[in-house]
């Protein structure tokens, strides 16, 4: 297998608004990130993916960009960004930019021009359609609820927005749009960034017939079959690779929801010249109900395990995996897949990290995950800030589909704001995130969960992550070893081996709050070394009774 730096990296995702505020205005900023680079270096991560920091009205927290070459004023200046790049590079840390090019903000100069008249030179930068029978051009619903079309009285036409109405979709069929995007990407590469995480990149090509979608009993039609992995998406990405990516030593990861194994091989296949890897979301989309993710059902462990194994096995030797449990759009991983009850929180956070970091692929750590940060469980609607949570609360309660009480429970478990509460740095007021009033409330458990305490405690979740990351850097087998699943049908245990030449690894994780019995494979029954364990186990007999949420990794060289 070809060795590359991005296969050997561990990526840390920063949500800048919530990471560290350096000037007391309650909003995280670039200077705050610079202040914490030594902390990130100590953790051992070597790539930072930073959610968008460009000029934006912040309708969707920066995923609505109004100027691709300007830093958002509340985050700082271009000089600050250049300092961040230089300081990160000094510490051996690379920076991935969040590339948002499926849509812009409706306040972008291109869209302001586009909506002026039907013959404006920028008209065709966006997707405009005439009304059909006095209504929307088709029945598609937007990701954040409501119709995916917005009527614009100025020219008596509708524009497409797969997300909020303040996020009009760019028309990638227009070659000028593509040129603008590639020029902008080259601009940032020349500044010295190290790659791109590409927001909803699988949606840039649409079926030009714009047919109605299936409603599946919902209020709107599903745009998925006509806008996700659309007819020209691979052509566009190969062009982007030729025009930009191939000219630099950069890392790329595409956000590709709904991606199948076959599609993933097209996006990230070794011989495809598109992207290095993609994010697939199958494992975080399980347990959805009649209204998508808005349910209080807990995830199904056996289904989760089956999906994780499938991606390991079927991409092996064909494309590279990205490994994650949390990000800015997901609830906190320990609350969702582990157990955030204080009795089990640290142990289960370490177990989840063990399971992910010992697989083949590039691991992603979402800010605070290395501390075991949990969901916030807001019980008042006014505490929420997330556009998606607020839209769906209104849509599902006003249509009588869910009661307000039930919908509040869904938000507590599934809202994106769970991941967006401020980073918990220490026990001072504002959790060390800000000296001012934070833009969203701090989780009250910052007194128990914070970086300052964990840095001092050798048994902390932080130090456990640090060790996992160090092991990956030291041992090729963790990066490049072949994966083989064990105990496929067990309803508590996730176990697998990795093999590279004469070396073998065994990872064992108990995903439940009950004890679990297992037998070690013969190879590891004698003379194996324990690389890491979350409960200090010393004895590894042939038959083992695992404690709740216990995890360990054994290593053997023939």
From TrEMBL:
<feature type="domain" description="Glycosyl hydrolase family 13 catalytic">
    <location>
        <begin position="13"/>
        <end position="420"/>
    </location>
</feature>
<dbReference type="InterPro" id="IPR045857">
    <property type="entry name" value="O16G_dom_2"/>
</dbReference>
<keyword id="KW-0378">Hydrolase</keyword>
<dbReference type="Pfam" id="PF00128">
    <property type="entry name" value="Alpha-amylase"/>
</dbReference>
<dbReference type="InterPro" id="IPR006047">
    <property type="entry name" value="GH13_cat_dom"/>
</dbReference>
<dbReference type="InterPro" id="IPR013780">
    <property type="entry name" value="Glyco_hydro_b"/>
</dbReference>
<dbReference type="InterPro" id="IPR017853">
    <property type="entry name" value="GH"/>
</dbReference>
<dbReference type="Pfam" id="PF16657">
    <property type="entry name" value="Malt_amylase_C"/>
</dbReference>
<comment type="similarity">
    <text>Belongs to the glycosyl hydrolase 13 family.</text>
</comment>
<protein>
    <submittedName>
        <fullName>Alpha-glucosidase</fullName>
    </submittedName>
</protein>
<dbReference type="InterPro" id="IPR032091">
    <property type="entry name" value="Malt_amylase-like_C"/>
</dbReference>
């Amino acid at each position: 297998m070809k060795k590359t730096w991005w296969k050997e990296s561990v990526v840390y995702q920063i949500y800048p608004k919530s990471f560290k505020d350096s000037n007391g205005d309650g909003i995280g900023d670039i200077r705050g990130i610079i202040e914490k680079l030594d902390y990130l270096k100590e953790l051992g991560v070597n790539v930072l993916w930073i959610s968008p920091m460009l000029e934006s009205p912040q309708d969707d927290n920066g995923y609505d960009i109004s100027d691709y070459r300007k830093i958002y004023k509340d985050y700082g200046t271009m000089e600050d960004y250049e300092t961040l790049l230089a300081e990160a590079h000094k510490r051996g840390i690379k920076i991935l930019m969040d590339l948002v090019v499926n849509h812009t903000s409706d306040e972008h100069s291109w869209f302001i021009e586009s909506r002026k008249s039907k013959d404006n030179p920028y008209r065709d930068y966006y997707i405009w359609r005439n009304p059909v029978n006095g209504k929307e051009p088709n029945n598609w619903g937007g990701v954040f609820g409501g119709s995916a079309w917005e009527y614009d009285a100025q020219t008596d036409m509708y524009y497409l927005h797969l997300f909020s109405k303040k996020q009009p979709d760019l028309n990638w069929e227009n070659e000028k749009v593509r040129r603008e995007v590639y020029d902008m990407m080259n601009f940032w590469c020349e500044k010295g960034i190290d790659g791109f995480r590409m927001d909803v990149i699988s949606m840039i090509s649409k079926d030009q017939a714009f047919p109605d979608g299936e409603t599946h009993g919902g209020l709107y039609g599903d745009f998925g079959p006509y806008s996700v992995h659309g007819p020209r998406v691979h052509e566009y990405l190969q062009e982007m690779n030729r025009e930009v990516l191939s000219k630099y030593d950069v890392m790329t990861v595409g956000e590709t929801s709904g991606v199948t194994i076959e599609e993933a091989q097209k996006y990230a296949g070794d011989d495809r010249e598109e992207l290095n890897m993609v994010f697939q979301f199958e494992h975080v989309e399980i347990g959805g109900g009649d209204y998508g993710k808005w349910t209080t059902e807990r995830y199904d462990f056996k289904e989760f395990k089956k999906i994780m194994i499938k991606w390991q096995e079927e991409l092996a030797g064909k494309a590279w995996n990205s490994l994650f449990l949390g990000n800015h759009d997901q609830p906190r991983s320990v609350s969702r897949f582990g157990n955030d009850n204080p009795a089990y929180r640290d142990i289960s956070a370490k177990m989840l990290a063990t399971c992910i970091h010992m697989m083949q692929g590039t691991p992603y750590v979402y800010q605070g995950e290395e501390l075991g940060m949990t969901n916030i469980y807001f019980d008042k609607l006014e505490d929420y800030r997330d556009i998606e949570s607020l839209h769906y609360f209104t849509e599902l309660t006003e249509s009588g589909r869910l009661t307000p009480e039930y919908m509040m429970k869904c938000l507590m478990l599934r809202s994106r704001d769970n991941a967006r509460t401020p980073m918990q740095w220490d026990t001072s007021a504002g959790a060390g995130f800000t000296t001012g009033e934070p833009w969203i409330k701090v989780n009250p458990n910052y007194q128990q969960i914070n970086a300052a305490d964990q840095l001092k405690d050798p048994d902390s979740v932080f130090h456990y992550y640090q060790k996992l990351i160090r092991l990956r850097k030291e041992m090729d087998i963790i990066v490049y070893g072949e994966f083989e699943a064990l105990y496929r049908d067990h309803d508590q245990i996730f176990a697998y081996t990795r093999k590279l030449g004469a070396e073998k690894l065994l990872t064992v994780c108990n995903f439940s709050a009950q004890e679990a019995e297992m037998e070690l494979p013969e190879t590891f029954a004698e003379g194996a070394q324990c690389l890491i364990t979350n409960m200090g186990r010393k004895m590894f007999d042939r038959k083992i009774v695992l404690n709740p949420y216990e995890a360990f990794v054994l290593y053997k060289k023939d």
